[in-house]
Amino acid sequence: MATIAEAKRQLTWVFDTNKCIGCQTCSVACKMLWPQEDPGTEYQWWMTVNTQPGRGTPRDWETMGGGYNGEGVKLGHIPTDEEFGGGWDYNYDEVLRGGKGRKVHLQKTAGSKSWGMNWDEDEGGGEFPNAYFFYLPRLCNHCTQPACVEACPNDAMFKRAEDGIVLRNEDACQGAQACAAACPYKKIYFNQTRKISQHCIGCFPRIEQGVAPACVRQCPGRAAFVGFLDDEGSMVNKFVEQWKVALPLHPEFGTRPNVYYVPPLAPAPLRDDGSFDEGGDRIPADYLESLFGPAVHGALDVLRTELDKKRRGQDSAVMDALILYRWKDALGHLSRDPADIVWK
């Protein structure tokens, strides 16, 4: 079991679920930049955005185990290729260049048969007229207590001291997949071609040049934020430490994740006569607690209070920060334009 080094500073992400529109720009930006040309990464999506409530990707990941219990690292299920889904290919050559005209049509020739990263996209919960859903962006949590690092039998994984990003030495990785079993968020993929595990690297080559991760910089909804958690001037510090409106996903897993979420608000539910039940919850409170822990109730109270202040024309630093009038404020210290860099 590897020893986890304590990071001097911790890079942190915050996603506002009230502004995420599920456009998948972050997912595609990541896919185009990283797991694309490397053989064996076809099915890998280091950044995913899933509909909640939903089964996610890999399918039913929340029930697969991992993380920590009272005795240390708890190994869980290693997702199968079918549970991850993806890696599809189609008969493009036959249809587009085969000279058969309309006699042939696109058909899937390879890939999973029963699941994919957005298999249940926009399928929500509740019943008409009180249906609901929201989007949940997910990447490696670069945890403070990463079970994957501790579980690796070959010391291939490590936590960088300078920024807390969890990385892997692919030369040392021997494909044991203990990291995948230990990760309770199931954001570690196995490259069948190279026989190594792979995961989100936090865009560390960009960060070293002062450029924000692709998932944050490319977000058109201004729903993503990044910065050092101990930087009191950063948005992530304000959301997490000062205002306490951003929470980790499944804190009970014990890994102390460093991706946080502003929980979703929703319109008041409708009564049978069509009037609003202002005292009710359209998104069940117990469901949100199952995702973000008991602290979600306090966070929602703050959000409702600040939203009401804004609607009444009063000042609200919380709402101003979430509205994000200046998009570069979301980037923290990583505001450099990638176009200004000569990449080697």
- Work out the count of structural domains: 1
Return the average pLDDT rounded to an integer: 94
> Could you say which structural class the secondary elements and strand pairing correspond to?
alpha+beta
Pick out the low-confidence regions: none
Helical residue percent band: 10-25%
Strand order of the largest sheet: 12-1-14-13
Using only CA atoms, what is the Rg? 21 Å
CATH topology: Alpha-Beta Plaits
Second rung of CATH, namely the architecture: 2-Layer Sandwich
Shape: globular
DSSP strand (E) fraction? 5-15%
Identify the CATH class: Alpha Beta
Number of strands: 14
State the distance separating the first and last CA atoms.
35 Å
Count, helices: 11
Main β sheet profile: 4 strands, mixed
Helix-strand pattern: EHEEEHEHEEHEEHEEHHEHEEHHH
What does this 3D model show about the protein?
There is one protein chain. With 344 residues, the protein is of the alpha+beta class. The chain has a single domain (11-85, 116-340), classed as Alpha-Beta Plaits. The protein is built from 11 helices and 14 strands. It has helices at 25-33, 81-84, 92-97, 147-151, 178-182, 204-207, 214-217, 235-242, 285-292, 296-311, 317-323; strands at 11-16, 48-52, 68-69, 72-73, 89-90, 108-110, 134-138, 157-159, 166-168, 188-191, 196-199, 224-228, 247-248, 259-262. The strands form 6 sheets. It has a 4-stranded mixed β-sheet. The two termini are 35 Å apart. The model has no long low-confidence stretch (mean pLDDT 94).
